[in-house]
Write the structure tokens for this entry.
Amino acid sequence: IEVQRAGYLAAGASIFELLNQRDEAEQLLLSALATFEARYGKDSIANAQVASLLGKLYHESGEYTRALEAHQRALELHEKHDGPDSTYVAGPLTDVAVDLHQLGRMDEAQRHYRRALEIHASGKQDPGEGAARLLTNYCVFLVERGDFPAAVSHCERGVAIYDAINPDGHGLGIALGNLGAAHMALGDHARALPHLERSLELRRKFWGD
């Protein structure tokens, strides 16, 4: 019953997050995490998903240090239970990389991005939304590093995956914006424009004018 309650708490937190009620979402997630820890112990893989949700909540609130701590915990649990090269590790690696990137810890971020890329490149699973998210975030990272051709290449791959999964999706809108920005950084405005226009169209669909 307690484990079922923890699942309901985590689901409730997602609703509060959608309603922009950050504090309520955090309290539900912390309660869910405490329930799982009491039932299974602190090192249980059951804690990984809630830690990941906490990290996402903190990241979207701009609390990058707290996000990093939560995402690192999720990563450590997946590495322990699934192995360091498991496909289950790629997502948490991306989360940690993005947090480090936001904190300006660029060398550490790059190491985590590259590890995640290596796992996806291993071909153990078909490319999905996780790979697309990794590629488009790494594109932003490479633009900031000044490696514009590599940024375009990675973002094009991410856009292709998103386009195949859901051509009207929110993720594709973000990826197209990143690709357009990478072309702009190269000074190629003609190639940037159609990507930026399509990105704007998709963003308006989700967020309005």
Remarks:
- Residues 13 and 25 are 4 Å apart (CA to CA).
- The chain has ten helices and no strands.
- The two ends are 45 Å apart (CA to CA).
